[in-house]
Design a protein that fits this description.
The complex is a heterodimer of chains A (about 160) and B (about 110). Chain A is of the alpha+beta class. Helix content of chain A is about 25%, strand content about 35%. Chain A is built from two helices and nine strands. In chain A, strands 1, 3, 5, 6, 8 and 9 form a six-stranded mixed β-sheet that branches. In chain A, strands 2-4-7 form a three-stranded antiparallel β-sheet, with no helix packed on it. In chain A, a hairpin with a 6-residue loop joins β5 and β6. Chain B has a single domain, classed as Immunoglobulin-like (Sandwich). Chain B is elongated and about 60 Å long. Classes of the chains: A alpha+beta (about 160), B mainly beta (about 110). Chains A and B meet through β6 and β7 of A and β5 and β6 of B.
């Protein structure tokens, strides 16, 4: 084969594989989550604005502890910490965890009180695939802070 | 099948001390997205949708839970020890069932 023929052949093959590949991936995705597509970052953004009532969300105060790689998406440990004195007039009211890549963006919402003493909560999540997790904190003065972290998932945790 | 919640709370604490509470509840947390391999039908959702922690009857911490919380829901959170008394923990299952646990703590 000449150079140009080879390139043409390669390109045809690549196109074919791309089409076939996307078909296979689409099939696999629907098999994992029957009848439902995965949520997109826009769905997460929409949920966050529901939580905040559209208010500006600031950076800072919130930190998310997540493994860089989750071996098993069925159980991923997460710890969220918010910098706050947790006094009666200055405390974290709520902490929401939001998923950018699961079938739905909802994960869990924690409700804290001044008696919580410290705004640090740990839990375990299901992560369907590599994605970003967002932690949004609502303060007693009505302000919102958030942070986002990526987690790589080797085996997705949507079951079945 | 008996579902006995596991709770770790210190038996005593000093006034003002911030203590850690750990809870573990045995539950499949069926998401409603899985298919029965034999029948091909979707297995209906059944999860613990709310967890509450109260101390001497007052709310300290709670969680509104969705199917993305892993099976056997685990929560670790904090509480400022102010007076002696009892923690009450409640797990609310889809369908209305509530499972509770109590733990006492002495504060000096």
């Amino acid at each position: 084969m000449t150079e140009s023929n080879k390139t043409a052949a390669m390109m045809e093959r690549r196109d074919f594989l791309a089409v076939a590949g996307s078909g296979v991936i689409a099939l696999m995705a629907t098999a994992m989550v029957p009848g439902k597509a995965f949520a997109k970052p826009e769905d997460a953004a929409k949920l966050i604005s529901e939580y905040t009532g559209g208010k500006t969300v600031q950076d800072g105060k919130v930190s998310l502890k997540l493994p860089q790689i989750a071996e098993n998406g069925n159980t991923v440990p997460v710890t969220v910490m918010v910098d706050s004195p947790m006094t009666a007039d200055n405390y974290v009211k709520k902490i929401h965890l939001v998923s950018e890549g699961n079938p739905t963006p909802y994960v869990v919402s924690f409700n804290l009180t001044p008696q919580s003493g410290k705004a640090e909560v740990s839990a375990r999540m299901r992560m369907a695939k590599t994605q970003n997790v967002v932690a949004v904190a609502e303060m007693s003065d009505g302000s919102f802070f958030a942070t986002k972290k990526q987690i790589k998932v080797t085996i997705g945790g949507c079951g079945g | 099948m008996a579902k006995k919640p596991r709770v770790k709370v210190p038996k005593s604490a000093k006034k003002g001390e911030i203590i850690q509470v750990k809870t573990l509840f045995s539950h499949k947390m069926e998401t409603g997205l899985r298919k029965d391999k034999k029948t091909g039908k979707l297995i209906p959702r059944k999860i613990i949708n709310k967890f509450e922690c109260l101390f001497n009857g007052k709310p300290v911490f709670s969680a509104d839970i969705h199917p993305a919380v892993a099976a056997n829901p685990y929560f670790a959170f904090n509480c400022r020890a102010e007076e002696s008394g009892a923690f009450e923990f409640k797990w609310h299952e889809d369908g209305g069932k509530v499972i509770t646990a109590k733990r006492e703590m002495k504060v000096s």
